[in-house]
Write a structure and sequence with these properties.
The protein has 154 residues and is an alpha+beta fold. It is built from two helices and seven strands, in the order E-E-H-E-H-E-E-E-E. A hairpin with a 2-residue loop joins strand 4 (98-109) and strand 5 (112-121). The protein starts with 21 loop residues before the first strand and ends with a strand.
Length: 154
């Protein structure tokens, strides 16, 4: 599988016109709803990670000399993979104060995701997001695009 660094993307478009991964947020009492749209599973998971970093207050590029590290998660299906991926990133932010921003996808399968990531170390843990939840979770395909929705506990 070809490796690529996925840049941060912003903007809102309809799924049928979505040429690049994108995300949007919707607040709900004590929760943050995240919707991600992308053409591939790898792009969707990377976009979800970049949206999480945004919610954690991390913006901007990562220094090129920052070390790369491998992150890998497994689950029974792609919806579970999204939950495992986000919860692993939340754990790393809380335990190591490390938030990844740049990614090189190494494997993006329906039950396994592995990526190398470059991130920033924060002076304190970005404790706004507690967990990705199963409540309202969906991960669908529409017209050749993927759309995932996950509720984040804040």
């Amino acid at each position: 599988m070809a490796r690529k660094i996925v840049p941060v993307t912003r903007g809102r478009m309809t799924m049928s016109a979505c040429p690049v991964p994108e995300h949007e947020f919707g607040e709900h009492r004590g929760e943050e709803r995240l919707i991600v749209r992308a053409a591939t599973l790898g792009d969707a998971l990377v976009e979800a990670a970049q949206a999480l970093a945004e919610l954690q207050g991390v913006h901007g590029p990562v220094a090129d000399q920052s070390p790369w590290r491998t992150i890998e998660v497994t689950a029974a299906d792609r919806a579970g993979l999204l939950i495992e991926w986000l919860n692993e990133l939340i754990f790393l932010a809380e335990s190591e104060h490390w938030v990844p921003m740049n990614f090189m996808v190494e494997a993006a399968l329906p039950t396994r995701f592995r990526a190398r990531a470059q991130g920033v170390v924060l002076p304190v843990a970005p404790s706004r997001i507690k967990a990705a939840t199963w409540h309202g979770l969906r991960f669908d395909s529409h017209n050749g695009m993927l759309e995932a929705e996950v509720v984040l506990d804040v």
